[in-house]
Amino acid sequence: MTKLYWSFPWLEIFFIVFCLITLVQLFYYGWFFRRLAWYSALVQTYPSTHEVIVVNHNSQDDTRFLLDEFKKTFKGLHIVNLEHEAIGIPGKKYPLSMGIKEARYEIVLLTDADCIPASEFWMQKMQDGYDKGIEVVLGYGAYKRAPGVLNKIIRFDTFHTALQYLSYALAGQPYMGVGRNLSYKKDVFLRNKGFSAINHVPGGDDDLFINKVATRANTAIVIDKDTFTLSDPKKNFGEWFRQKARHYTTAKYYKPRHKFLLGLYSTSHILFYPLLIVSLFYDWRVALSLYGIRLIVQGLIFHKTMRRLGEEDLFPWWWLLDIWMFAYYLIFSSTIWKKPRQNWK
Prior knowledge:
Elements: H1 10-37, E1 52-57, H2 63-73, E2 77-82, H3 93-102, E3 107-110, E4 115-117, H4 122-126, E5 136-138, E6 141-143, H5 149-170, E7 182-185, H6 186-191, H7 207-213, E8 219-221, E9 229-231, H8 237-248, H9 256-308, H10 318-333
Parallel strand pairs: 1-2, 5-8, 6-9
Antiparallel strand pairs: 3-7, 4-9, 5-7
């Protein structure tokens, strides 16, 4: 009596999936990310009449007195003192709304209190993004260089996020901005009733608002190095993890097409390296060839984009940091579904 044994071709299936995942990754680099690497824009110069608005949000120290002293020297300083919290509006959307409504001019340029512009041309050159029909301008908010692995991880994460949201904007799919360096017209803020649609979310004053109002026709980017802002990065992994976890809780509110595009990219990144290892046991020549093609394409785009964003010192480490992104996506994937904390610091 002859017995027939049937086995499922798992290795072949994993290999085919690996090939498909590699094609997905190459699609993102070829369709989206190359746009930022080879982006060029016409530089103009707009005369700038400006004011600096500082919102003092219920401070309990000597901030009010310090700002009053600054006012004596800087006549263009506009101080908005808020002494009460807005019930049911967590985060910084209430003070931001008050500051924007108090603005005398149409173009609003936003940054955080712990950020500094990279040059004295920040305001002037961010205005270069405004052309006919443009209502939203996205900038790059970098973190300062410092020794240590954590600094490289934080800055690579910031670069990688910018690679996505700036490239998506160039491809006509703007989905977020960063409050450290963001500009939009006062009219687009008032026309969309400010943050009223997202007041229940602790964050989202930058990414969710941009996700709502930005379109293919009304959004531009500015990546001149004079327009960058710089912030101090977190000093330990725990603080950075809490910061990133808070940011990721807003992603569930993105438009469906943006959630699909971002989800497909992150999923392909998670699957790429495990499937590469498995595929080596099926056909190591083809597996390594596909890995090499991805490596070359990714390296070329990373090199050009890192130079443009002033992160060129990260390039020698990019291949290792890319492997780290596998763990990064696994670590932070659960935070997307968690209920955000209601307090803000």
